[in-house]
Design brief:
Blueprint lengths: L6 H7 L9 H11 L6 H10 L9 H8 L4 H16 L2 E5 L7 H4 L10 E6 L7 E5 L6 H16 L3 E4 L5 H9 L6 E4 L10 H4 L4 H7 L3 E4 L9 H13 L3 E4 L7 H11 L4 E3 L10 H8 L3 E2 L3 H8 L21 H10 L6 H8 L3 H14 L2 E4 L2 E4 L11
Parallel strand pairs: 3-4, 3-7, 4-5, 5-6, 7-8, 8-9
Antiparallel strand pairs: 1-2, 2-6, 10-11
Helix pairs in contact: 1-2, 2-5, 7-8, 11-12, 15-16, 16-17
Amino acid sequence: MSGVRLDRLTEVLVPIAAPGTDPEMLASLLAWAVRPRRTLESLRRLMRDTGAEDPVSSARWRLHIETQLREDDVRAAMPLVVPWRARGCRLAMVGDPAYPDRVADGWPDSDAPILLAMAGALPPDGPAVAIVGSRRATSYGSGVAAWLAGAASAAGVRVVSGGAIGVDAAAHRGAVGGPGGTTVVLGCGHDVDYPRPHARAGGLFDEVRAHGGTILSEQLPFAPPRAGVVRARNRIVAALADVTVVVEGGTRSGALLTASAAIERGRPVLAVPGDVRAPGSAAPHRLLAEGAAPCTGPDDLLDALGSSAPAAAPEVDGVGDRGGLPTPLFAVLAAAWPRAIPMGQIADDSGMATGAALAALTRAQVAGVVVERPDGLVLRRSPSRTTSPT
């Protein structure tokens, strides 16, 4: 043994170690990985190449790690704990009870990360779907992503995506508040505000946590969103899901990496057909040509998962989940779903007085029933999850 004292680092890790995770082994891993020359991924490769079958928390690997540590490694690792604790993270090592079994499957031959930092609720063991696609999503792509995610979450299926702007964000927002909920896989550390609109106070990530969702990362808390790190998180998105659905993406879309990772794990991939002239249709159409099943609506997704379609949302006092949105406005938005419509057009098509219509739409936005996109307004959830017009 190197004689390095890990006591203080172990002590501060106790409150953020997930249930069943050894704080002392966590201290060893962090002190070892805090230096650029020693990464957790290199340790995984070493375990794979030596044919190790024992867990990373075993005495063998603790000895291997701790014999290389110095006191300054331990001191350098101490600042990592502060942002994790501030974000409410819990840490789990591969093989620990709180580490998702789907991700750990096949490790160390699979490329599952040794360590996950998870904020919010720990990911459940139930069915899950990855819904992924382009950052430069069209109204069609965002609408379909929210539609599929809303139906999946209503059926108790967890929705997983990468937390990016575009299709990812639409999927997370569609799932928030449903029984299934959602998991965000970051392409950076927890202490990096990226993407900024989602990470700021009151943004998407706060909404996810407030509704029992999960924000997780394999990175140390200060890791920036470099291209390689962002791409690498796609394999975790795929690993967390039973089925992956690609909604939109170009020829070099990261969604294709997610699909490839799912295929490598033997899990189904679905693709949403799109406009053959649209650049964002390239990724799903390539997958369809290669044998992916088409996803033309929630039924296709739920069939692939083996889940039944959700029941219609109950009506409450004749208003249900519409937040007081008048029937004429609801009817226009429901007919257009999942596409967005400019506010002025909604008012015109509803037949209501313009002032009253705009005031009602504004109230519906504040209530969260209607959301604004660059090309207009759209119901936050599928019309099947709101009360139908009477």
